[in-house]
Structures are given as structure tokens and as C-alpha cells.
Prior knowledge:
By secondary structure, the chain is an all-beta fold. Helix content is 1%, strand content 43%. The two termini are 35 Å apart.
Amino acid sequence: MARPTRTRRSTGDRTAESPGTDLAGPTCGCTAAPDPSPGPSSGSTEASAGTGTHPDAEAPGTSLWRPTAHFSPEQNWMNDPNGLVFDEGTYHLFYQYNPHGNVWGNMSWGHATSTDLVHWTELPVAMEASPDAQFFSGSIVIDHDNSSGLGSPEAPAWVALYTRVYGEGAGHPVGTQAQALAYSLDKGATWAHYREGEPVLGLTPQSRSFRDPKVVRHEAGACWVMATVVADDRVVKLYRSDDLLEWEWLSDVRGVGAGAQDPAVLWEMPDLFPLPVKDGGEKWVLLLSINPGSVAGGSGMQYFVGDFDGTTFTPQDVAAAGSDPTAFNWVDRGADFYAATTVTGAPGSRKVMIGWMGNWDYAADVPTAPWRGSLAIPRDLALEGEEGSLELVSTISPEAAAVLGSGTRTQLGDTEVVDARIPLPPDLCAPRQLISVTLAPGDAASAGLVVRSDPRGSRGTLISYDTRTQSLILDRSASGVTDFSSAFSHRHVVALPLEGRSLDLTVLVDRSSVEVFADGGRRVVTDIVLPPTDATCLALFAQGGRATFRRMTVTTP
Length: 557
């Protein structure tokens, strides 16, 4: 993806293929691959440990906000995750990175690895920007069958399809965005640029907003499928390929979802994939990031459930265009979850999703140093519900949950709270907590938790359930530093009728974030917070009546 600025498209901007053409289904004829002459590998920096604490990088910066359970680079700016891939027991994370500063720019691909999705090792920069090219978002597949001819079945190539942004002297108008290909024969350590970085897929006329390719294997069609966007035209474009080198247009997705008719909105980071449903079949899910226009303000992610026949994705049960944002399906209903994408080859055919904890409304103003930017906790995705009412459910990925749950685990008995705010014992205070609780709101008007609170529980981030409005609320107005941007929104409200049920909550609290997984992951809220050093405690509260907190467990490192 790009930074959140719009560009004016050329008059008559169109694709090389006509969207109105009646296309037949995918054909399977292979084309001969050009001679893949390797280009020079990208520049890199020295490797550094990526455990989440970075003790050697915390002075004189803002170490009180350095995440302990979420990836952040040792220093400098990061945003979107890219090219997520799992291979031989290791997760590889590539990401948008500025090797030279703490602001957006010089877009390159950083690289880190992990075996448990919590502890990360930061590696040399994979592909570094130069005057003639920047490397925007994209994806990686492992070409096990050597369909590209770039590797071999015994030593398959890692193939990255990414957006190349052309600079001075590159042979394209400055700022042109097109999809290029790089490949690695050493598991992502070094990369060669196919055809010296010339596009394998572009638009005619050339575009400054054609970006973010995500490639998946479509087994039924025995081909590769790419989803990409023309960001300022709010269209997802689908393509197919037999060999990852030559791409054929399939269809477009447009006119649906939040902001579909709003010329101020950009579409970014599409991801199209199947998920099983309980009747034994499958449905396809399209993830789509939009900026602005999200349900929490600024940038956010929506999703669509539907069918993909190998040519066309048909979303189902989508609210009418122009509806209130609350009517659409959102991957996360907090302010700080964007540009998420799924891991290629995750174990057990799972769909593991990782997103950027940021919002373009204020990402450049977040007062952290020497880094700026981090990733949300990795999440497993599933579809639950009946045909016509399927919901995307997100839960903490089991590898990460095992690490987060392995510390000091304290179980509390059932606790009734009546019109009070009750701080929990000080031995539960810690800058990181994994909290599990079932809340029975009873006759209270409002009840919930105060996380990252002061020792008395008087200030902090409130996670509450409001029985009058039947809604879950995250309120960060008293969370700590909130005045670094006028766009830093304070309250995020999620409709969640309980119909007499209790509310199950899993909450992950870190030094600078709160992630709430409610009702088994059917509703998720992710927000950045910047609390003071002594705000590491936890409190319960009820207002206007009695509430009961059951089966509460707090795990600290």
C-alpha cells in the first residue's frame, strides 16, 4: 500500500482489458517462461534480535511503550505486513519499512522470523528502496511445482509479487505503480528482480494507484489467482496465471461495501481466500482495507463473504451502498487495525492473519521512538453461523496463545460488583496481561474492566458493556497520552446484543495496545494506548446496579 494521499488518475484511465468483455473461464495453457536472468540482490543491514523488548534500542527513546508481545522493528518506521509465509516450522514476516527514518518514506521490505508468533528475530532488509524504485506491499508464494521455472521442485523458489513504484530514470513516469516479481532461492535471505524489475502486470494507461497484489493457489482451477486494487477507483481486480509470470484478467469487484461510492476513499490490501463452513462446504472471504471511512474513523478493514467460481467473486448479504458504517462487516471495530493479510502455507491449512496496529489519521504522530509502528497479535480466522448470516471470527493464534498463557496464571473466584470500582490485587499488576473473563452484566447499567489502570483503578482504559444500548465499548479517553493528535478518537462502540447471555471476553494488554476479543471472537476491538509507567494494574467496575465476573483468569509474564 501507499501512504494515505490520493493521486489524480489520467483522464480515461482504464485497464488493458475491458471490464465489459465476456470472458470465458480460466484456460490452462502454459506459456514459456523468459530466461530468468538474476539481478542484484537488495541492500541489507546487520541483523538484530527481535524479541519485542529491544533493550539495546530503548535509551533515550520511549521504552515504556515498547511492545513485549507484538512485533516492532528495533528502530524506524513500519506499516503494512507483506509476504507472510510459513516454511519448515518458521513464520516469515516481511513488512513496509523505512530503513532511514522514523517517518513514512523510502519504502522497503523489512524481514523478521518467528516460530511462536510472539518472539521475532529481525533480519537484514530484504528489498531496499533506491532512487529508481520503492517496494510497496505484496505477497509471497512458494512455487513447489516450479510453475515459474525460477527454481526447481527440489529447491522451490520463493516468488514475491509486489508493487514497484518507479522513480527517476526507471523508464516509466515517476510514481507509476505496477506489479513486479522478485524471487529468492535461499528462503527469503536474498532476492533477485525478474526482468530487472520491469512489471509482470500493469495498467494501460499506466497508473499511480495500482497496487497491493495478494496471490493464492486456486486448487480447483489449477492456477494462481491474484487480487489487487486500483485504490482511488475503489475496484478489486482479479487475475489468473499458470506460471506467476504472465497474468490474465478475470473480473472486477466494485460498488460494494463502505465507501464504495465515495471519491475520498481508497481501497487497499485485498486478500481473497476460502474458509470451511460447518456443512462441509466452503465460502470465500475477501478482506479489504479502506481509508478513510472505517466504523471507528479513519482507516479500517471490512470483509465480504461470498462465492468464487474461478472467475468472479460474488459477495453475499452486503448492506446497501451508502448505509451507515455500522451496517457493514468489519474485521476489527477498533481504530488501530489495518492492512492485515494472511500467511501463505500456515500449518494445518489454517488462515493466520497479521495486521498493522495503526490508523492513517494519526500514525505519523504517534510519539514513540526510536521506532514507530507495530503489528497486532496474529489471529486465526474462521466462519461461523448459518448460510446467509456467516460471520468472520478472529481468535489469537494458538502458537501465540501458548506463549501468552505460559506465565504466572492467577484464577479469581466469582466476583460481584455493585455500583463500585474495585482494584484487583497488586500482584496482578504488569505491563502485559492476558485476561479471560465471563461478564454477567445483571441489572447494572454498565460493567466491565479498567486495564492499564493506576493502582486505585481510577484512571485507565475502560472496556465495558452497556446494557441500555446493548453495546461493547472501549474508552481510551483516560488511557494516558491522548493529545498528540486531534484525530485520536476516544470511544469505540460495538453493537453486541446478548439476549440474556453472559459476555465472554479475552483481552490482551501490552505496553501500548489493548486488543479485545468478545463473544468468542465475533467482535474484536484493537486500539493503541500510551499509558504512564505506573499504570499497569487492573480493576473491575459496575455502575447503576450489580454485575458478576466469573471464571476470571489473569496471566502475566
